[in-house]
Amino acid sequence: MKLIAHRGLSSLYPELTEIAFAKALELDIHGVETDVRLSKDGIVVCVHDPIIDRVADGRGRVSELTLQQLRGYNFGTEAMKQSVLTLDELLEMLVQYEDKHLYIETKHPVRFSRILEEQVVLRLRYHGLLFDPRIHIISFAASSITWMKEMAPQLDRIHLRRSWEKWLNPVPNFVGHPTGLGISVERARKNPEFIGKWGLPTYVWTVDNASDIRWAKKQGVDMLATNVPGRAAALLARN
């Protein structure tokens, strides 16, 4: 089972910051996960929420702030100040670790629509990673999975599924032809038959409880996103 550090080593360091990823990349795990959005001036930044209020010492919507404005805020703590991280900067970190994978979650809905995916593809191409099997695109938005298939069909595309989607898509006619499916650990517990269903690899989030980690391994989960990757790795090594 592949362990993925959710938003970097977010249980010990400010989420989606340089220090969080630096520490996660040092661990003996499969890879790291990041969320991405576009700033007002079209820069791909690693921020989960549409607004920065929760994770920075400022206020505002990511899409209404330029990179320079975002740089003016602290995304860390008083004792550990951190600037907003761009996807370019994260990719520069990744290339130093040849064994690590990166899961890029495109956040939607956003005012920029498919421009977000276009910019992600451009950044990957710039860093020589567009055809690298270590790059995985994940999203709750079927539209994002479709756009990525059009622009970079060689990339792994994991569609994160919500519970209500089974009513909209009762048959396995997945938009964008994803190469993997993702479900929450809560839904996986209730419906373990979804794991590996339709022959697609399963990505499960966000799994921090020891009993859930052991359960996921027994159920054959392929990829597991966790806030405690070090602890999860140690646990699996003992079991």
UniProtKB/TrEMBL annotation:
InterPro entries: GP_PDE_dom (IPR030395), PLC-like_Pdiesterase_TIM-brl (IPR017946). It is an enzyme of class 3 (hydrolase). SUPFAM superfamilies: PLC-like phosphodiesterases. The keyword Hydrolase applies. GO terms for biological process: lipid metabolic process. CDD domains: GDPD_like_2. Its EC number is 3.1.4.46. Residues 1-236 form the GP-PDE domain. PANTHER family: GLYCEROPHOSPHODIESTER PHOSPHODIESTERASE 1-RELATED, GLYCEROPHOSPHORYL DIESTER PHOSPHODIESTERASE. This is Putative glycerophosphoryl diester phosphodiesterase 1.
